[in-house]
Amino acid sequence: MLKNIALVIYLSRLNRYSFNAILGALETQKYLLKEIEIFLCENRREVFKVLSQIKNFYSQIILALSFFTPQLWEFFDLIKKVKKEFDKKVFIIAGGPHPTGDPERTLKAGADLVVLREGEETFLEFCRALLEKRDFFYIKGIAFLKDNRIIFTGKRKNINLDKFLPFSLKFKRFGPIEITRGCPFACYFCQTSRIFGTKVRHRSIEKICEIVEILKSRNLTDIRFITPNAFSYGSSDGKILNLEALESLLKNIRKIIGTNGRIFFGSFPSEVRPEHVTKETLELVLRYCNNDNLVIGAQSGSQKILDLCHRGHTVEDVYTAVKLTIKAGLKAKVDFIFGLPGETEEDVKKTIKVIKDLTQMGAIIHAHTFMPLPQTPFAYEKPGKIDKELFRVINKLLGKGLLFGDWQKQEKLSEKISEYLCSGFY
Fold first, then answer.
1. pLDDT at residue 2, rounded to an integer
2. Homologous superfamily assigned to 3-152
3. Among the listed residues 307, 405, 417, 327, the one whose alpha carbon sits nearest the alpha carbon of residue 364
4. What residues does 146 pair with on adjacent strands?
5. Is the peptide bond before 176 cis (omega within 30 degrees of 0)?
6. What's the CA gap between 393 and 387, in Å, rounded?
């Protein structure tokens, strides 16, 4: 007799935190874990090995994938090969930034279903429908093809972060704690506001402390966070600082982990906006945290480009943030995106000046090249290019250890992504 359901999850390096959250959600439904056998795969080879081993032993096999746009060729190829080898024996469900922004071509590439935006509650409902042998096409927050036509089932409500753990206890899949979802700024190059909305939602201090207690009980006392903007924690709108909530968060975590534990806040993977770097926020980092740097999102040295991108801060805010950060004894790692839409030679010169000024102040530049992303206002803009003069500046700073990043790889990817998005084909 065939077993019920097998869920095969591909935990690629870039997407593991997304599935930590999905596994955490599944673990809130004990009966699902009893009925669904879960297989975790770290690479493509493992995916095919597991699928080959289990294909004749389960009535239903689900392959779950999550990926970003720069990964789409790798994952579309994987989907194609899985379908070729296993055909209808494997049902492929895809989620994450790229499938959410480009569901139709993800489905036409061979995925059977796309989970749009947040996945926790949608995925739970999908699993329940499978177990109960119900039609899952009524579930809100998914897309699928019917008669070669894409069907959207409607937008799902945003989840309450307190309902779920951001990691898996059963499979010991731990990572940074997601403390905030949503971003009010909706920068034109970024998918965050399109996926999670413009209204910020925070995981409560009580729930975060419960999570930290769990981590501590497993001797995991390096505490990091996932958030679009670390200093926005507790803010009602994501723009006005809530220093009381920030301090309460950090103070309570420090009480739990003690002096031997470490808190990393405002460093990777939780950057900060420049206008939120103040004496007060820096004092909180110095008092409670262990990071020796802040990651500050500048993106351009031209005010015109910042305004075109809908950034919501000024070039002067960047200077102030770096000055305050370095004065506080922290390293300032400053993000810049090169080749943004609308950028002229004059805008490049302004960015070069700001970069030179900031590095002379002691900052380190994290260099990126603009890549168009589906669902964003800049999706169909020209791919990012590195200006020749800027390239010379980059190389000088690189040699001095004042700049790092994957700008060269991203420049090539930008062309490829742009061609993909504008072609209408995959």
1. 57
2. Cobalamin-binding domain (3.40.50.280)
3. 405
4. 149
5. no
6. 10
Inter-residue contact 234 to 201 (CB < 8 Å): no
The domain ranges of the chain are 3-152, 176-423
Q: Taking residues 62-82, what's their average pLDDT?
A: 97
Beta carbons within 8 Å of 17's beta carbon, 6+ residues apart: 166, 175, 176, 178, 226
Q: Where are the alpha helices (DSSP H) in 258-376?
A: 279-288, 303-308, 315-327, 345-361
* Matching fold, domains 3-152 and 176-423: no
Tokens for 133, please give them: 């042998």
176-423 homologous superfamily: tm_1862 like domain (3.80.30.20)
How do residues 96-126 score in pLDDT, each as one tens digit? 999 999 999 999 999 999 999 999 999 999 9
Residues 6+ apart with CB under 8 A from 319: 354, 357, 358
Written as one string, the DSSP assignment of 242-286 is -HHHHHHHHHHHHHHHTTTSEE--SSTT--B-GGG--HHHHHHHH
